[in-house]
Specification:
Layout lengths: L7 H13 L1 H12 L2 H18 L9 H35 L6 H14 L5 H12 L4 H8 L3 H23 L1 H4 L18
Helix pairs in contact: 2-3, 3-4, 6-8, 7-8
């Protein structure tokens, strides 16, 4: 039995044979997937695998039989991913049906605390922060109102969040780092310096 690897000429012959058999491979995949687009995507992936592994084939191996094994393995992976996606979708749907309970009192307390700390943030950052984060206004609308591009508003919002985080760390100290929700930590502390 010849155990030498296939030479360059042999690799080219194998690749030609695989490309010439494209119609058969597509039919094989489409029959199992039920979708021409999915079959074409999977075949492209299989070709990529085959072309990168072509030099590892042995002379005695039948390239078409080997390629069908590659296709079957890709089909198995495809079905596993589809099943995992379906399970995830079912789980999200079940979670979506669960009623979300908002603790309005806690929300208002956090808002008061955050609004108080925003006084330490630059006015141009404070406005975008309050409008987008606390009033749920769309960033595009706030950008239009401020007369800036959405990209500029996005940068300002990023900087505003960072400035707020720094102000919270100065004002609340350890509580801010550990996400403590007890806003009584502000009592007796000095106001945060303007950030």
């Amino acid at each position: 039995m010849d155990r030498r690897t296939v030479g360059e000429k042999g690799i080219a012959d194998h690749i030609d044979l695989l490309v010439q058999s494209k119609t058969r491979f597509l039919a094989f995949l489409e029959q199992r997937l039920g979708s021409r687009a999915d079959a074409e995507d999977l075949l492209q992936t299989a070709y990529l695998k085959a072309f990168t592994a072509a030099n590892t084939l042995r002379h005695e191996e039948k390239v078409v039989a080997w390629f069908y094994r590659v296709l079957r393995n890709l089909l198995i992976d495809h079905y596993r991913k589809r099943a995992a996606g379906a399970q995830l979708g079912e789980r999200f749907a079940a979670e979506g049906e669960a009623e979300v309970v908002i603790d309005e009192e806690l929300f208002q307390e956090i808002c008061r605390c955050v609004k108080g700390v925003t006084k330490a943030v630059k006015p141009e950052y404070r406005e975008i922060l309050l409008r987008v984060e606390l009033q749920d206004e769309p960033l595009q609308q706030v950008a239009r109102d401020l007369g800036v591009t959405v990209n500029n508003a996005s940068v300002r919002l990023h900087r505003a969040r960072r400035a707020l985080r720094e102000a919270l760390q100065v004002t609340c100290g350890v509580c801010a780092e550990h996400r403590c929700l007890d806003c009584s930590c502000r009592s007796g502390r000095r106001a945060a310096p303007r950030v």
